[in-house]
Specification:
With about 475 residues, this protein is of the alpha/beta class. The protein contains 19 helices and nine strands.
């Protein structure tokens, strides 16, 4: 919040909003009505008053209240005269009497208080935007950082109107009812999902879908299928719920992502799509796949190794143009960078700051943020299911995340025992199309989704089948049964 209004210099063509009548009425209420004092004092500061005399009077009232002294004309006159030496500056005791006459009752005071707050907010926004303009001198070294700083400054101003207050249980129940009503109206996928569907009934049963404001971490070793699962999840959400979806791919370009989605929805081997070795039936299936993809609202950003501030800025812009934004997917955590210089902070500290801000972003946009992460080699070496401590550079990942899921494949671990590096490379190659191949390169690969953390629900393992030739995950039939 800016300091004194009189000290601010802004473009003279920008009129500063204020309402002297509202300011005087609120001060009158503070002098005349003890029942409204606490609420007004908790809602205002000196700088919310534009008029210099009104600012001085409010400052005196604020100090009297903090001292536990009853506020009236007598105590206020004494404080302004003895403590502040400012009584002559406001026009003496006569000015205080005039203010007391401005009190028009509780209802009017509430209305004037809102006017006063709105005008103060508008002035703060003008000051902030003016500072942003003044701060741009044409020689900004990092334009992305400059934009992010300006955006954060504006956000701090707007958040002044979102100061939390006590909420009773009746209001909480109403909020829940409204949220469920919206979820019911938007979600016709299954009876278990109250958020953004995963597209897998068994997983929705456990998670109830991705909830607004949640941070979900999906972890796995390289080449196990993190990106493939994420593409499945975002495709399912976009197609089943008809909601816009954002996908940040920090290591694959948009065309490769498109080929994977096309392979999945057309059920054509991705290698054949890349090489063009397609039969007439394949071309027909591809045409149907093209049509499916065209109707989806999936926004892919394939900028490599993006800065965290850029991701946040792009998400906010996308939310502004697509208010119904369903979810944000990021592939992956380890490739996000910050503005910290090399050596300033450890990698663990940097990852902790990233997850903290991603969680804040999820809450601010009221959408789930799903971010991929790599695991250490511990579970691979020990031939076991992954656990939370396997998260690489974990720091606060476990703390910030509302849900943590792991992808586990027995075939991958068996390959690791035989020849870790060579097998990992082989496992990442597209399947050759032979449905009878039951080798580690085979089509249907059993995959376990480990729900290791679920802040508002149970943890359990979900069994899926990974169709490697088309990059598609499917459920086992028994997983859908009660």
């Amino acid at each position: 919040m800016p300091a004194n209004t009189k000290d601010r210099k802004v473009n003279k063509n920008l009129p500063l909003p204020f309402n002297i009548e509202a300011e005087r009425s609120v001060l009158g209420a503070l002098i005349r009505s003890a029942t409204e004092t606490d609420d007004i004092i908790s809602a205002l500061t000196d700088d919310d008053f534009y008029d210099a005399k009104n600012k001085i009077v409010y400052h005196a009232i604020y100090n009297l209240v903090n001292e536990g002294t009853k506020v009236d004309i007598t105590s206020l006159t004494n404080y302004l005269d003895v403590q502040m030496k400012a009584l002559p500056n406001i026009g003496g005791v006569e000015f205080l009497r005039e203010l007391s006459e401005e009190y028009l009752g509780e209802v009017n005071t509430r209305a004037y208080l809102k006017i006063l707050q709105d005008d103060s907010l508008a002035r703060s926004l003008i000051y902030t935007l003016d500072d942003c303009i003044e701060g741009f001198n044409g020689t900004v070294n990092d334009i992305s950082q400059y934009v992010a700083d300006c955006e954060n400054s504006v956000l701090k101003v707007t958040q002044r109107r979102r100061v939390a207050e006590f909420v009773d249980t009746n209001a909480i129940v109403n909020q829940i009812t409204q949220r469920l009503s919206k979820a019911k109206a938007k979600t016709k996928v299954n009876q278990y999902c109250t958020g953004i569907t995963t597209g897998f009934l068994s997983l929705d049963k456990v998670t109830t879908g991705w909830q607004p404001g949640s941070l979900i971490i999906i972890g796995a070793r390289p080449s196990v299928g993190k990106t493939a699962l994420t593409i499945n999840l975002m495709y399912n959400a976009a197609s089943l719920m008809d909601r816009p979806i954002a996908f940040f791919s920090l290591e694959m370009d948009a065309a490769d992502i498109g080929i994977r989605m096309l392979s999945m929805c057309s059920q054509i081997n991705s290698r054949n799509i890349q090489t063009g070795e397609l039969s007439p039936d394949d071309w027909s299936a591809l045409d149907a796949g093209y049509n499916n993809l065209r109707r989806l609202k999936i926004f892919v950003d394939d900028t490599p190794s993006q800065k965290l501030n850029d991701i946040k800025t792009k998400c906010k812009k996308l939310k502004a143009t697509n208010p119904d934004l369903g979810a944000v997917y990021i592939d992956y955590l380890g490739l996000i960078t910050t503005n910290a210089k090399l050596g300033e902070i450890s990698k663990t500290q940097e990852i902790g700051e990233i997850t903290k801000q991603l969680k804040q972003l999820a809450r601010e946009l009221e959408v789930p943020v799903i971010c991929l992460a790599q695991l250490s080699r511990a579970n691979e070496k020990e031939s076991r299911m992954p656990v939370l401590s396997d998260l690489r550079d974990s720091g606060s990942i476990e703390q910030d995340a509302d849900q943590v899921l792991f992808i586990h494949r027995e075939d991958y671990q068996k390959q690791g025992k035989q020849s870790s590096e060579k097998s990992a490379q082989e496992a990442s190659r597209p399947f050759d199309g032979n449905p009878d191949d039951d080798s580690p390169q085979g089509n249907a690969v059993p995959t376990t989704i480990v729900v290791a953390k679920n802040r508002n629900g149970q943890t359990r393992n979900i069994q899926l089948i990974f169709m490697k030739n088309i990059g598609k995950f499917v459920e086992l039939e028994h997983e859908n049964k009660e």
